[in-house]
Amino acid sequence: MAGDATTFARPYAEAIFAQAQQTRQTDSWSAMLDLLATLLADAQLKKVLANPGLTQIQNADLFLSIADDHLTQEGKNLVRLLAQNTRLALLPEIQTLFRYYRSVEQGTISVHLITAYALTSADQNQLTKSLQRRLERSVELRSEVNPELIGGFH
Hints:
By secondary structure, the protein is mainly alpha-helical. The protein has seven helices and two strands.
């Protein structure tokens, strides 16, 4: 399923985004999807969810017991639906697609830059302005330093 994750996640992400737009809850959905994808990235939780002795409903209940206070009823329904369809593993891809749809709607693009050394604020501002001119969109730049990069950029 790994190669098909985007294909399987797309209908969910599109439906969530359409609902979020209609109800004007894109911020809320974005926060919920961020939380759910972060939880799923936890190695210990992944192991528990992969336990063949647990049913999908039990997986959903476990997931909801952790995130319950941070989810709307619609968010809880999403978790249950994904578990029922054996698709909880798609949450990170659903989150990524949702962010993409939101950035298109807002006319922004998120750029994650990895460099071998820290960029100065002036360098970051210059790069952001250059990308905005070239892409004709607002750019949200996140930078990360990885000294192991040989050429300076990744």
